[in-house]
Amino acid sequence: MNHASFSGRGRRRTLAALLGSAALASLPPLGWARAAAPIRIALIEALSGPVGNAGEAVFRNLLWACERVNARGGVDLGGGVRRPLQIVRYDSKGQPQEALSALQSALDDGITVVAQGNSSAVAAALIEAINRHNEREPQRQVVFLNYAAVDPVLTNERCSFWHFRFDAHADMRMAALMGVLKQDADVKSVYLIGQDYSFGQAVLREARRQLAQLRPEVRIVGEELHPLARIKDFLPYMTKIKASGAQAVITGNWGNDLTLLVRAARELGYEGKFYTFYGNALGAPAAIGEAGVGRVLAVAEWFPNAPGEASRQLVEAFRQRFPNPADDYIHLRMQLMIEALAQALERAARTAGTAGPGGLPPAAALARALEQADVSLAGQRLRMRADDHQAQQPLMVALMERQGAPGVPFDVEGSGYGFRVVQRIEPAAAEQPHTCRMVRF
């Protein structure tokens, strides 16, 4: 269908029908959108089921990031060609097999950029499938952008030329948390709890190793793995934690597994600290409530209360775009990931010499350009380490406080609670060695 044959509101409705309302929101003015097919990014994520809320948070962030690129004219592929970015949703339901089916659908649709993150088990399955696909079909190769799957193995012994991680991996996050725990003399005993899959197991393993190295006097009084996204009542787990006498809980739980855990802690009156990877997200602050003030810590590449005017402006712009408090969670690394993709597409278009599927640079050229990614936004700089495709950026540890307390101008999801940054770890300190032996193409 010729988009140019429609005008005004009718043409825009037709575009919405063809590309989907989410894609339409990402398109710049119709004057050039008519002549340029979008560059599609397949979002393979749990968009339904018990962790669907996490997937929807991802979608909002990637949508907003694409809108920003498109507002400045889209991706410049040279020769006067500028193309907008478009997110295409594929629901994996959080299951590896469903994700593989979604990947096949994206491949059948001709998409050459895949994004996923909420589950290291899913990411591992996608990496393996993409490796096989790219070897079998060199004319239809794809790259994989990972924004949240943080099992360290994915950029170590299972690293892939086609896979790029834009989040700090679990060992990097744990080291940041331990930098705070090392100074917390009040904590003499801890309980380790996590989700029973590759990521959760890696978190507990690294917690044991770093505790032995940095705080050998701290006792581990309990350790537990539970099924991922299947537990509806965490009271039995929290009962054991409270009975153990643990003064702190260390957990990598995310999604409802974290929300329900901390809700159970509140119901039981547990007064220990929580050293978390994701305690600042997806309903957790509201679930913890007043009991978390001064006791719940989280680690991330950035927090809405990060110091600086650029951070404040980013938060306010996001809230203007998504005014519903329930939608109020910003992942800066996802914004930087899309910026890195746009940068790499433009670099690859200049250097590749030939076009791949859909008139885009070949995936191998795009991967080589992503290895050089170096982008900044809201005072945060991210660069890609070419040796293992692990992004390097600052990390922050923050403590839960009431909104309005010093250093907490913004709350999370309308909860009345936010996170005050207590420690910033520079990239050189956050960086860790790797065991990747990259096979390049």
Structural class: alpha/beta
Number of helices: 15
Report the radius of gyration as a whole number of Å: 22 Å
Count of individual domains: 2
Q: Largest sheet, if any?
A: 7 strands, mixed
Specify the overall morphology: globular
Q: Quote the CATH topology of the largest domain.
A: Rossmann fold
Proportion in β-strands = 15-25%
Strands, count: 17
CATH superfamily of the largest domain: Response regulator
Regarding CATH, which class of the largest domain? Answer: Alpha Beta
Q: Could you tell me the mean pLDDT? A: 91
Distance between the termini: 37 Å
What does this protein look like?
This protein is of the alpha/beta class and 441 residues long. It folds into 2 domains: 36-168 and 316-392, Rossmann fold; 171-300 and 394-430, Rossmann fold. It contains 15 helices and 17 strands. It has helices at 8-19, 21-26, 30-33, 52-71, 96-108, 120-136, 170-181, 198-214, 235-244, 256-268, 284-288, 309-321, 332-351, 363-370, 427-430; strands at 39-45, 75-78, 81-83, 85-91, 113-116, 143-146, 163-165, 189-195, 219-226, 248-251, 273-276, 296-300, 374-377, 380-385, 390-392, 395-402, 417-425. The strands form 4 sheets. It has a 7-stranded mixed sheet with strand order 9-8-10-11-12-16-17, sandwiched between helices. A 5-stranded parallel sheet has the order 4-1-5-6-7, sandwiched between helices. It has a 3-stranded antiparallel sheet with strand order 13-14-15. α7 runs parallel beside α8. The radius of gyration is 22 Å and the shape is globular. It starts with 7 loop residues before the first helix and ends in an 11-residue tail after the last helix.
